[in-house]
Amino acid sequence: MKIRLLAITAVLTFMLASVAVAATAPADATPTAVEECGSIPWGAAISAVEAITYSHTIAGVKYYKVTKTEPCGVFNIQGANVTYGFLDGKLYTVLVEIAKAQDVKQVVATLMDSYGLPDHKQSDGWDEYRWETDDLKIKLKSQFATDRIKIGMYYKPLIPKE
Q: Which DSSP letter does residue 117 get?
């Protein structure tokens, strides 16, 4: 149990660190792939990604799985599915799904450390937490009955205007 908790915390810490590195790039900088764990800066072109496999398209967003697992093997060890969504060829969203998270409170606490207090609501058997920064919208959904967690991060400058 402690090992699983530490591993989940490590996965989310890595993910948040990757987002923080990507979010600190200057707005006028040309996006490039970040070497650590193959993370991709927000708004980067799909051409910046190595070993990517098309998954599906929903509402104009093309979703891909990154098939290069080194040095990102921690995601595979934890059974987390990570999907990258590109809108108009630029990184718009990162979706993470963890099938059996053992400590949802720790996952939420890790996000709170980086993004502050979330808005929280419950609906249809899911707890939903939301954060927002200048550049990102973050949503975490957890289902107590199944220990399932879904995290969606969205790059606000690319969110389609209605």
A: S
pTM exceeding 0.85: no
Distances (CA, A) of 19 to 23, 93, 126: 6, 11, 25
Q: Residues in the chain, how many?
A: 162
* The amino acid at 35: E
Residue 79 confidence (pLDDT): 57
Asked whether the beta carbons of 114 and 132 are under 8 A apart, the reply is: no
Cα–Cα distance for residue pair 106/72, rounded to 1 Å: 21
Structure tokens that stand for 156 in this block: 């606000």
User: For 33-42, 47-56, 116-125, which range has the lowest pLDDT when averaged over its residues?
Assistant: 33-42
Helices 104-115 & 2-23, crossing angle to 10 degrees?
20
